[in-house]
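chain below, 171 aa
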Amino acid sequence: MSFIQFPSTPDLLIRKLENFAPLSDEEKRALGSAIGPVKAVEADTDIVRQGERPSAASLIVKGFACRYQVLSDGRRQIMAFHVPGDIVDLHSLLLDEMDHSIGTIITCEIAPIPHRTLLDIVKRYPRIAQALWSDTLIDGAIFRQWMVGIGRRSAYERIAHLLCELYVRFD
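prediction:
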């Protein structure tokens, strides 16, 4: 009988960022030491809310979360899904306040990365900055595909596209 081996918390982020740039052992240690203790967040709970000014970014370690905004009539519009290895609120590093919320879909484990530490890392390690920037650009590309889907794809096409997106991201 074999068991699934889950990567360690730092390895999740390192593996993802190495898709964009190779990282040295020193860079990997810097990232590993920046990540705070993992905490559980129950399903259907906000990790960060629109209007907040977080002092740390949140790394999804286990679980599934979404980026959303609440409409004036109380309905929620989901704009992205997040999987393990994603820093879900990296925007909060440079925005004065969040213009959207991040919530859990199922129980998640998240680890904080303090903004001050992250800013120091990107100043000292340009390859990490490049990898984070690349990740943000891909996040933007996925968002643009969602907008095309909302505007021009049928419901079946949107679901098919979402399933393909999640398959690639979980891989």
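The mean pLDDT is 89. The beta strands are 39-41, 46-48, 56-62, 65-70, 76-82, 101-104, 108-114.
thats it, cya
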